[in-house]
C-alpha cells in the first residue's frame, strides 16, 4: 500500500522532451483557428465571398458544436489505436480541413473544411488531457495541466497578430494566408510524433508490457521507480478491466442523482454554461464588429485593437494561475463575474450613447479588454478546475464531459446567433443582455459554488451534503467500524 501513497521527490528527467510539444501545439492550433484567426479572417471572407450574416454566424459558431463529434469519437479511437496516433490522426484531419478552408473557392467548400477542422480539434481537445494525465508524474501533473489554458490564450494572441500582419494584402488572399498560418502548430505535432512515447497505461492495457517498461524507464529517474510505476499501472489496469460495466451505473447515478450529486451537477454544469452565456466567445470572435460599431473604421485599426484584447487575455490568465491556489476559487470568481458585469454594461453604454466619439471608442476598447481580463482571471480557468474537483472519482470523467457538452453547445448557440440578435436589438442591446446574465452569474457563484481551496477531494464531497446526508454517512461509517472490530 505504501507505494500507492508514496510522494515523488524528483521530476522525471525527460518529461520536458514530449509534454510541452502537446501543451503548446494542440491548444494553439485549435485556438488560432477557432478564435484568433477567424475573428479577423471573417471580415475579409465576407468581402471576398460575399457571404450573408447568417452564413458568417454559421461559419463561426459551427466549429464549437461539430468538435463534439471528434471528442465523442476520440475515446474509442484512442483505445483502439493508442493515444499517440490519435494525436496524429487529429493533426491530419485538422490539416486537411485547414488546407480546404485556405483554398476554398466558395462558402460551401469553406464549410466543408471548417467541419473537418472541427472534428480534428475535437479529437485533439479530448486526447490531450488524457495523454498528459497518463504520461505525467503526480508531482508535475498540477502544473502541467495548467499550461493548456495559457497556450490557448497564447494561440488566440498569435491569431490576432497574424490577422494584423496580413490585413493589408488583397482581400482574396489575406484570409487564406491567415487560415494557412493556423496549420503551423499541427505540423509541430507531426514532428513531435517521432519524439513522444506512447502512453504506458495504454500499452499495459494492450498487454505490451515490455514497451510500457521501456517508456517508463525513459521518463523516470531510476529503474526501481519505473518498475514500481509499472506495477501500479498494471494494478490499475486490472481494476479497470474488472469494473468494465461500471459506466452504466455511473450514468444511471448522473441521470437519477442523489441530492449531493444533484448539487454537484448544478455547480459543475452551471459554471460551464455561465462561462459561455456571458458572451466571452462573441467578445473574442466578433471584437472587430464591436469596434466597428464603436467607431473604428479601417480594417488595420480594427485588427490592431483586437491585438490589445489578445495581450490582455494572455496576461490575466497568467495572473489567475498564480493566484488560484493563494486566494482561492470563490474570491477570484467574485472578482471575475463582478468585473465582467461592470465591463459589459460599460460596453453597452459606450455603444449606445457614445458611439463614434473618441471617448466612446476609448471606453469600448477599455470595456472589451476589461471584460476579457475579468474572464481570464476567474471564470475562464476556474470553471475547468471546479469541474475536476467537485465530482467524486467514480463520476468525474462522465460528469465533467456532460458539463463540457453544455459549454460547447452554449458557445455554439451564442456565437451562431450573435449577428442576428444584434441586428434585432443592436450590438449595445446584446451586450446589455450579457451584462444581465453576468449579474446572474454573480448570484450563482454566491449561492451554488463552495470554496475548494486547500481541501481534499473527500472534504470537497462533504461540502455538497446536507445534515441528513452527513448523519447517514456517519451511521454507515459506524457500521463499517463495528464490522472491522468484529473481524
UniProtKB/TrEMBL annotation:
Transmembrane segments: 20-45, 57-73, 85-104, 111-132, 138-161, 173-196, 302-324, 331-354, 360-387, 425-449
Domain of life: Eukaryota
One GO cellular component term: membrane
Segments forming domain Major facilitator superfamily (MFS) profile: 20-453
Listed InterPro entries: MFS_dom, MFS_sugar_transport-like, MFS_trans_sf, Myo-inositol_Transporter, Sugar/inositol_transpt, Sugar_transporter_CS
Family matches, as Gene3D superfamilies: MFS general substrate transporter like domains
Entry keywords, A to Z: Coiled coil, Membrane, Sugar transport, Symport, Transmembrane, Transmembrane helix, Transport
Coiled coil: 209-239
SUPFAM superfamilies named in the record: MFS general substrate transporter
Subcellular location, record wording: Membrane
GO molecular function, one term: symporter activity
Topology in membrane: Multi-pass membrane protein
A Pfam entry, by short name: Sugar_tr
UniProt record similarity statement: Belongs to the major facilitator superfamily. Sugar transporter (TC 2.A.1.1) family.
Name recorded for this polypeptide: Major facilitator superfamily (MFS) profile domain-containing protein
Organism the protein comes from: Glycine max (Soybean)
